[in-house]
Amino acid sequence: LSLNIFICGVGGQGLVLLTTVIGNACAKTGTKVITGEMYGLSQRSGAVSVHLRIGEDAFSPLIPYGEADILLSLEAIETMRYIEYLKKDGIVLMNKRIMHPPIETSKIIAEKGAMYVTLGDVVSKLKSWTPNIAVVDALKLARESGNVRTENTVFLGCLSALEAFPIEDNAIRESISEAAPKKTIEQNLKAFDLGRKNAYDSLCTLVACKHVP
Amino acid sequence: MVLKDVLAKETKTAFMLGNEAIVRGALEADVKVVAFYPGAPASEVLDTFSDALGNFDYQMEITTNEKVALEVCAGAAFAGVRSLTAMKSVGTNVASDTLFVLGYTGVRGGLVIVMADDPHAHSSQSEEDGRFFAPNAYIPMLEPSSPQEAKDMVKKAFAISEKYRVPVIIRTVTRVNHQSGIVQLGEIKRSDFKRVKWKELNEEYATLGSVARRKKLKMLERTAKLAEEFEASEFNFAKQFGSDVGVVTASVSYLYVLEALKMLNLQGKVNILKLGTTYPLPKNTIRSFIKNLKKVVVVEELSPYLEKEIYAIAKDTNPALSIFGKNSGVFSEAWEYNPNIVAKGIASAMGVEYPGYEAVIQEAKQFKEIIPDRYPTFCAGCPHRATFVALNQVLKIQVSKGQEHYFANDIGCYSMWVFPPISRGDSSLCMGASVGVANGLSHVIEERVVAVVGDSTFYHAAIPALINAVHNGNKFTLLILDNSVTAMTGQQFNPSTEFIAGGRQGKKVSIENICKAIGVEFVEVVDSYDVKNNVEVFRKALDFDGLAVVVSRRECALYGDRNKRRRGEKMVPFYVDKEMCKRPYVCLRTFYCPAYEIDEDQQLRISAELCDGCSVCSRLCPIQSIKRTEVEA
Fold first, then answer.
1. Alpha-carbon span B254 to B259, nearest angstrom
2. Is this prediction's pTM over 0.90?
3. Between chains, do A41 and B376 touch, taking CB under 8 Å as contact?
């Protein structure tokens, strides 16, 4: 059986690096993996997404609607944009962080009564799709790691705790060391550990996780 | 992937992007000359070759456009050297003049052309089906469905190219270029790069008139031989399960078919013919596949390219065959497929139950109603934003005085000006066309025409149109937005920098010198960040009774920030002095920076994580309430 993870976020958040780290770890451990990546316009601040599929019976680079086991969202609003891919009762693993697009901010200036979408709005709406929602303050953990640009690796740490995530930690750590920019390897490894630790307080209260090491 | 997998000597398995697998295949095939103009979804072919340069002895150019790239490769191939280029779908249009004639002249060394179509127009101005180039130019074409196949086909394409002395097209789609998977690496055996003696080759590559007529007959013979060879190609294979229903497919659609059959519980119950050589088509293979079927479903994105051939073959082979595809209405010619679309099509053709996917899309729609769109936008620190703030101010003033404008946009990051909240632009066509249409418009409309074009697009296709304007005395204003790199595709080098492929030293080609040399009378160069000054310069350029060019120059923020980080420089963000801010919202109303948000006091807050410290908004604030963060020295 395959594990389908739909990853989304905002351009510049490092989705491609996250995908590369997982994919390389799969290659090291002889695990089949296939992805479909969408980042046509390389600028920052646009919506980006990756279909990541681990396992023998995943054929297409795109996950069929309603077949993602996990919707991993590096920005809270973006979770909603791809909800059709998530299984009913699937797992939402999402960032607390909201990056308001300029179009939203300009509306608030232009229209009386217009308000930002809040984390509360997003989470309460998501509950009608699935009760399994883990919200992670990844920016805070990334700061703790010494590099605010490691939110992606914080989430990798969270994912690695899942029982359903088939890649060994060693392979992931090795893969981080190979794929991350040299100067940031230590920070990324720390971000990975912080994410892993965080998972046991949030994600693992919802779904089965590996034993605490 | 990591670069070391592309370079790896050992034959192991690696996780690779389709585009990286293409590079690996070419390196395994001992490619010696590569040339590209970047364009999504093919850009990573260029980037990977650029990163790998120095590890192998191949020549590489990032050329001014796709036509030049193909000609660089053709030159090498004429002399018997293996060469490869990759371009996006619409790039093939630019290269097509050369492409067609290469069908006639042929080549000596293997020449492989990766043509990356973009169904769904994810990052293109149109949804083009490039497959028709192949039959039109009599150039063989292979279509991979996965990174592994892409690598294998590139290697094979070099052999075919040399055997038949003809370029070979590898036709991909976005979902192959940007698909990653596990790839089995082959051996890399490199030969030394040696110059060859042209005279000793005894070759000629001219074609015209009677020569062309003679070569046309040769071309037909060659195509017939290729068709014969492709009948036995390992890239065409059938999975037979004794069913009277079959699917014919190619490219990534094959993977959607496998997924769809799994979704429909039809695995092992439908015969499949997967085609890899899609020009010339292996017609006998298709004939024997459809001969005993009752129904065939043709699964291909965009035009009914395979489907029409299958109709023609079925007419003699199996006239009773029911053919399901675009003609029957099972599939659309619009947009890309996915597993659900393919499942629905196959289910309806076979008359089996499939609940469809409309309900889930409908339910998801409610979730999207409460969130804002997130269009691609100018990055924090982007010089284009500053240029457009100044331009907008001038245009507004002029409109208030009764001077209206036509705004001709072009292809590059500045194309984003068409998206909300800005939504400005009367036209945006293809590379360099803003200057071309400005010529025509200047003859017929009352408004002043303002055209914009980026540095890379200027070199690529705008120069002939600008020369035309000078020569014919056409009057309009052209802004050349020079941010040093081809930013939108990943900040590749172009003649606006002194760097060439692999970061080696090259020579800068001055845009303003070109403009002056061809006779533009009004040429000014400004710093994009200097908005106040630029308002004045743009006003003069718009009022100028003739052709006026302003070069707005400042390096791409992503490129500049990366260089800063490499040099170990800190990004110093700006913040709002809440005591001073009186909320006139000049920032929020004009600047639209992604680092902005409104805080609980309805004041601007600048995200320290996103601000790149460009300082432009602080200079725009009428009460100087946007300040640079104090940092310890």
1. 9
2. yes
3. yes
